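Q: How would the structure tokens look for this protein?
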Amino acid sequence: MYFTISTQLQVVLAIVLFYLYDAALLLKPDEGLLRPLRSGWRAQLASRGFELRQNRVLWLPVFVLHQPVYRQRWSATQIQLPADAGSSAAVEAHARSFKAFVLPLYLLAALLFLGLPSALLVLHSELLQLIALALIYLSTAWLSWLTLRHGRQGHSSQTFARSTALQILLCPPFALNVVRKLSLSYEIQTDLLQTAQALLSDSDWQDLAALVQQLMQREMDEIAELPEYAPTLAQMQQALRVLEQNSVRC
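A: Here is the predicted structure in token form.
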């Protein structure tokens, strides 16, 4: 007895898989993410993901397509706090540059995950399928145009914006992550800890600082008995003292 999947269901599954594949983020151990929420900013270290070939894989929440996310590095041997507030202000301004993407993003999501599946699997209407497909490509074209405009306005690299606009035209499910793609390409002058200290609430910053201290202490314990790592250990001890001194805002 064979289990077969209809062509219509294969199309729906392909849309979901393309989206989940494109939404996965591969981070190095010394990287982390920053993203704005309604109540402030949230930081997430790569250590929260699962390990894959010495890297970490993270998936962001699937229901907040409009939220930008910023990738930054931090160094366990060089921690300089606090940082200049000007860089964090630039990040906040960049995060506000994606407001125009909200409507077409959620319209496209509704069409891909509700409209088209309903036409394919429930209503079995060819006319509705054609209408859904037409609206999907119109929404994708809208997002592609917004991506090009984002580059022309200087919020993103024009070269990256053009390549992203073409990519989402060729594969509409990839368009659902366009805000994340553009924000991930944005270069921030400060490192993760400096930016997080400026943007996070007091309690969130204290939690992040405590987690970083735990990671550093664990690594220091591992190399403490290895003479060849003595210089690195000394640098980490100094960096840890700086972090401890700045873990609570004055």
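Residues 126-152 form the longest helix (27 residues).

The first strand starts at residue 24 and ends at 27.

Upvote if useful.
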